Amino acid sequence: MENAMDSSPRMPRIDEPAPAFTARTTHGPRKLEDYRGKWLVLFSHPADFTPVCSTEFMAFAKRYPDFQAIHCDLLGLSIDSVHSHIAWMRNIKEKFDIEIPFPIIDDISMEVAHSYGMIHPGASDTSAVRATFVIDDKGILRAMVYYPMKNGRSIDEILRLVKALQTSDAHGVATPEGWQPGDKVIVPPPSTIADANERANQGYECTDWYFCKKSL
Fold it and tell me: What is the pLDDT of residue 169?
């Protein structure tokens, strides 16, 4: 039973509605509802003007067209002001010749960070860890990935994950380890003995009754 005196926000959960927010960003006000109808990758970083964060943002920027191609937007966040974000974006453009095309949330109040569980006291009381949230086109949280302060994420893996989630939704299948578009997918295992007995005759590539693949 939850402690009735505990006022800390509940951590977000997969397959439940993502926490709503309204925030100031480098592209003007944004709220979660603005992204309804598209997928969204919401990701936090510890601080502006830090080297690991800079590599991540540049990688996200380079892959931005690939996210857009699968109807997915990007939205960054850190516990910094919008003026700090703007200065950092301009610095990245000046020093690395890379334009950051997506908004970054100003979360000085830490309201969004707390609602998404981005603040981990063991790491820092004032900085968000490297958290990544994949939110689908209906506003449902579909995946969460956390990285420590000192280690950068793989943006290619995040892109792959969004593609895998979209494929599972579209075709009612699962995807194996390291799946890439074009690879075979996993057919859901049968739920009755009759279905299990028939599985070998359904045209799938089966290793056993519960482990079958197919091409899309």
Answer: 97
Q: Are residues 139 and 176 in the same domain?
A: no
Are residues 63 and 126 part of one domain? yes
Catalytic: 53?
Answer: yes
Is the Cβ–Cβ distance between 202 and 214 less than 8 Å? no
| Same structural domain, 92 and 179 | no
Residue at token pair 């960003």? 25
Residue type, 60: F
- Token reading at 62: 């380079």
Q: Reduced to 3 states, what is the DSSP secondary structure of residue 106?
A: strand
Q: What is the pLDDT of residue 78?
A: 87
- Is residue 30 helix, strand or coil? strand
Q: Assess if residue 136 is contained within a domain.
A: yes
- Collapsed DSSP state (helix, strand, coil) of residue 142: strand
Whether the pLDDT of residue 36 is over 90: the answer is yes
Catalytic residue among 53, 72, 206, 212: 53
Tokens found for residue 103: 């908004």
For residue 184, give its domain range. Answer: 172-216
Residue 147 has pLDDT above 70, yes or no: yes
Whether the predicted model's global pTM rises above the 0.85 cut: yes
138-156 mean pLDDT: 94
